[in-house]
Specification:
This protein is α+β, with helices and mostly antiparallel strands. About 35% of the residues lie in helices and about 15% in strands. The strands form two sheets. A three-stranded antiparallel beta sheet has the order 1-2-3. Strands 4-5 form a two-stranded antiparallel ribbon.
Length: about 160
């Protein structure tokens, strides 16, 4: 059972929002000064209430852009977050603050970017494991460790790997 739902916001925005629907339901019913039954919602439990509310929230959230919903929900301390497109991920203030984009020096490709370790401990600097390998860079080493030393040339000749 998940307390959150993905809610699509205004179409031109092309973004979605993840919000805690259980939390929104409590706020929504309190704001109207009525209980669930008075609002025509199920009183059978959190799952049934969520099933009643998600379509209502979906219609409502589609009328405004993500930025407006984020401002409103964050002001009310409602757990929520935007779902970023790939090109927006590393522009997110929290991602920037957490230094999640790591620039490494690859021996053949120069500067490469990868995701940094998300765990930052006090007094323990984050040390990158290394750059992403090229295709087939470690094939011989892995096959040798697995005991296939004699098979490597034959497998390569059959184009089983690069």
């Amino acid at each position: 059972m998940k307390p959150h739902s993905i809610l699509f916001t205004m179409r031109h925005d092309r973004r979605t929002l993840v919000a805690d629907v259980d939390y929104l339901s409590v706020i929504g019913t309190r704001a109207r000064g009525k209980d669930r039954v008075e609002l025509g919602l199920s009183n059978a439990g959190p799952r049934a209430l969520r099933d009643d509310l998600v379509p209502i929230f979906a219609d409502t959230f589609a009328k405004q852009p993500t930025s407006q919903w984020l401002a409103l929900l964050e002001a009310g301390d409602v757990p929520c977050a935007p779902v970023n497109r790939l090109e927006e991920v590393f522009e997110d203030p929290q991602v920037t603050h957490s230094e999640m984009l790591l620039r490494l020096e690859h021996p053949r490709h120069g500067h490469v970017y990868t995701v940094n370790n998300p765990v930052h401990l006090l007094g323990t600097p984050v040390v990158p494991f290394g750059y992403p390998p090229d295709r087939g860079e470690h094939t011989d080493q892995i096959l040798t460790e697995l005991g296939h030393t004699d098979d490597i040339a034959a497998l390569r000749a059959m184009s089983v790997f690069a």
